Amino acid sequence: MKQPLTQGRIQLAPENHLSAEQIQAAKRARRGFMQQALAAAGGALAAAGSSALAKASSNMPPDAAAWTRALGAPVGASGYGMPSKYEANVQRRQSPGLTRTPLSSVSFTPLQSLFGIITPAGLHFERHHSGAPEIDPEQHRLMIHGLVKRPLLLTMSDLMRLPSVSRIHFIECGANSGMEWANVAVPTVQYTHGMIACSEFTGVLLSTLLEEVGYDKKNAKFILAEGADGSALTRTIPIEFALDDVMVVYGQNGEMLRPENGYPLRLLVPGVQGVSSVKWLRRLEVGDKPWNTREESLHYVDLLPDGTHRQYTWIQEVKSVITSPSAGQKLLDKGYYEITGLAWSGRGRIKRVDVSTDGGRNWRTAKLQEPVLPKALTRFRFDWNWDGSPALLESRAIDETGHVQPTMAQLRAVRGTRSIYHNNAIKTWRIARDGEVTNVQIG
Amino acid sequence: MKQPLTQGRIQLAPENHLSAEQIQAAKRARRGFMQQALAAAGGALAAAGSSALAKASSNMPPDAAAWTRALGAPVGASGYGMPSKYEANVQRRQSPGLTRTPLSSVSFTPLQSLFGIITPAGLHFERHHSGAPEIDPEQHRLMIHGLVKRPLLLTMSDLMRLPSVSRIHFIECGANSGMEWANVAVPTVQYTHGMIACSEFTGVLLSTLLEEVGYDKKNAKFILAEGADGSALTRTIPIEFALDDVMVVYGQNGEMLRPENGYPLRLLVPGVQGVSSVKWLRRLEVGDKPWNTREESLHYVDLLPDGTHRQYTWIQEVKSVITSPSAGQKLLDKGYYEITGLAWSGRGRIKRVDVSTDGGRNWRTAKLQEPVLPKALTRFRFDWNWDGSPALLESRAIDETGHVQPTMAQLRAVRGTRSIYHNNAIKTWRIARDGEVTNVQIG
Prior knowledge:
2 copies of one chain form a homodimer. By secondary structure, chain A is an alpha+beta fold. Chain A has 2 domains: 90-310, Sulfite Oxidase, Chain A, domain 2 (Alpha-Beta Complex); 319-440, Sandwich (Immunoglobulin-like). Helix content of chain A is 17%, strand content 26%. The first copy, chain A, is built from 9 helices and 23 strands. Chain A has helices at 20-46, 51-58, 156-160, 178-181, 189-193, 206-213, 239-244, 294-297, 408-415; strands at residues 106-107, 126-127, 142-146, 152-154, 165-172, 196-205, 222-227, 234-238, 247-252, 255-256, 266-268, 281-287, 302-303, 309-310, 319-324, 335-344, 350-356, 364-365, 367-368, 378-386, 391-399, 428-431, 437-440. In chain A, the strands form 6 sheets. Chain A has a 5-stranded mixed beta sheet. In chain A, strands 5, 6, 9, 10 and 11 form a 5-stranded antiparallel beta sheet that branches. The two termini of chain A are 33 Å apart. Chains A and B meet through α1, α2, β1, β2 and β3 of A and α1, α2, β1, β2 and β3 of B.
């Protein structure tokens, strides 16, 4: 990049972790303070050397140096640390009016405020059917039975001494981006794409447990997983998935699962819609046919144009979204911006992400952050100089199996207009002349 | 693994996330309940099929099913989630008597309770010199000056629009395992090795900023980094490091840095002792010689056998430790255990980890969890059947540059007996006949 990124002066930039109100407040505050401060500091800094620091400091706000003149918090002030009070608006949020009760509802991950590929456990989206129980791990049991030689009832301690693996995977709800089907222009990426999160999970491969119980290799075709919450949610898992990379998970991002993510035990079916990764897992049954339980017959099915329902959609197909700049943010000045976002595929690794700033007419390839892992979020980045004219930002992901993320029009041509689930279409953000970023559908 | 892991019955196992007291309590509770329950459940489960569930359930403790008969917490009960109340003892801890004031002290990461390679931000060890300030990001500034053409004063917003990278790296305090030099058999791995943590960090490469300010390519040899806390901690960084992989970091594990880890901005010098990764970063000065500031002249130096001091030790050399089983835990029964731990090297990737169960006489190679990343923690795992006899568990790491983790005797032969810092020796845990695991030094 030959052009100076900061162009010799300090530019106001998008606060990708602040609300629109905070951005406006910051803008007002800075227009006054910063212009004076920089006019003065500019001269002082040009002199360079350590004397410049003293002069520059005198141009800092009076409070800025307060923490340099006082003692801070002692170590161990908190046995378990929390974010700064200045980050209080980075939180999971419900979408008002989306559901009738918060006991069977969703809270969304604030993707616009996050970096890298790991989602903090405290911000992992929630989707409960009867609320999140708080289970005593000493009393919790996992039963494995059905077409097996040696049924087992396992304590958490039993499970935690077994051979384990740690893997970074995403979990995406099958209904993520569901409101986009109906052209509901929800205001931010938190609501359009925030039913996804990515964690380092630790647990026991289901294949290890199936070997241990001596499953019936001839007749076993499916596994039923059941949760210990009030809804006793059940899902059918094909045996090929179970023997491949399905895990019985107790660890998330280095520590035990959080209560709302299935503590003390959940299933993880990598690459498959989130509902299959049954939380508060208490039972695994080996059988020879799918169970067709309530949550897999009445929900998580796709109504197709010919009037039939598509049931048992396993894979979350290749998808991506730009998280910054994104709807609800505002570009405060022309100049350099890093466009960044997330891409993922339930079929494996992301191979390439393209970015368009003109609504899909021209595409250029983005940089992918290493390591690019299978069935995990992949962070992409793209250098962009905004010239102040209106723009339409889009990203398009391609996975290692060759699947290409479709436009909304392409998806509707196949899937019709009455779907709720499994929307992996390209997302467009519109940037207006005044820098305002909004959610639009152009396809 | 041909031998059944659970040997046809449920074995009591080590709670690697519980205190010794809790393990004893669990043991007492289970000996009564579980033996009765399993005698009954064993017969019922042998019948298999779904009717077994009802029978097995009737053998569960009365409270066990309480959460299956009630609604749990609604979504959004917490905009920012926290661990289960049952995990309250998984916390950072101070070592009593280690320092005179908690404002200039350490709290340690509970490695014995953690999985995988990511350390939750809330459990990242702390090391402050004047306490942890809580800095207002709107007021914080980073100044870059010295041997540069265009000195800069940057706001957080300025920094956060620049080209960024995300990388998983460890940070280890140079004094980690320091008490082991003096043969202090501290009780757990939290205190022997808990001044290390590993995170996905996001920020701007220092090389990007140095290009932006036009650093003096002929004369620039070192960078001085300075913190905004009360101690205004300063460290000298060689320019080769600065131009390689040093980052100016604002993101940790997906979200903004925590206050105690440098919010809103810190330096990250991958592979180098933690003190160089200056927290609450406010100033970077480009110069032509090392500064020899207080914290790099009086502290973080190694007193060698010939009476001289070794100053400016940059690299954290290859090291590993078994985190489970580890001191303070107890094996409650013979049988299968997964031995697991962490390895790392400031020089790059871990190439191999060997494990010994007989105090270093025989070694076998452990499995490494992928991805194995440079200057990051690497999780290793090793299958072990404990036959009930006393054992001495050790791990030995080798990095991609060929460096081999030394024994304590080898390290003392070179470094003498009066060091505090830079102890990367092999650690031994002793397992007694009764399963008690203790910290011993045998080299």
